[in-house]
Amino acid sequence: MKSKDMVCFAALSALLYARPTALPVVAGIIAAGLCDFQRSRQFDAVSWRRYFLGNGTLTWLLSPFNLAIDMLCRRNLRVYRLSDLPDTHREEVSAVIAAFRENFALVESLACQMSGKKRGMCFLRWYGRRLQGSLCIPGLDRDFKYVQTIGCSVFNQRQRTSVHYGPLRLTLRCLYNLAPDQHAEAFIDVAGKRHYWRHDPLFIFDDTLVHQSVNDSDRLRYCVFLDVLRPSPLTPLLRVLVKSIGGGILFARRVFYANWDMLR
């Protein structure tokens, strides 16, 4: 169990011990977690342990909030195509990807920071907030209404993430591989399904589903990394929630990306 998940689990246990009257609340969180867990459609013992006692514990504790967000948004498709998003969302996603593609040489300059490192992340924006001192990509200095987080992830050779869950369902994760490997050695697994970058460089999904990114090739893997507001008739409310939460967890990037090196 990771340290942050031990803290979450210990806090829940302490609440129940100190206030037995909190039992209905704890029961509700467990019920919400069970409902949320089944979305990934993996029911083996390892998956149960990972979600409730491993690196999915935070996702479990936030499951009541995430299920409430589901009620404010359009039906969750789990894995999306760009055409599944509204025109407004598509325009912004396409504009960000185009800016990265046109300035790929700048992205490749991150390679000099990857010596001896496994995975690197360069954030330009985090939950709607512009970050100072990050990679400067022309065309991304505009205001975005739907794209909330902008970054670039770089995997060194023969590297992969752990199998894990994202914490929040306010946004969709959008990844775009800038230089797809052509030998089926770089891919992402989401809820038991595998997506190869060589088949389609763009992949959009609900990152509270269990997933793992893999680069088994002998070259660096560069992916544009975006969080995009979920389509909803209550977009202004989602934007306020993202801004509020983003301000509160700006410091938490080091926790969520503890196994990544921050690039600039």
UniProtKB/TrEMBL annotation:
UniProt KW Transmembrane helix keyword: yes
Keyword Protease attached: no
Residue stretches making up the Aspartyl/asparaginy/proline hydroxylase domain: 148-231
Entry's transmembrane regions: 51-73
Pfam families documented for this protein: Asp_Arg_Hydrox
Species this chain originates from: Paraburkholderia edwinii
Protein name: Aspartyl/asparaginyl beta-hydroxylase domain-containing protein
Keywords carried by this UniProt record: Membrane, Transmembrane, Transmembrane helix
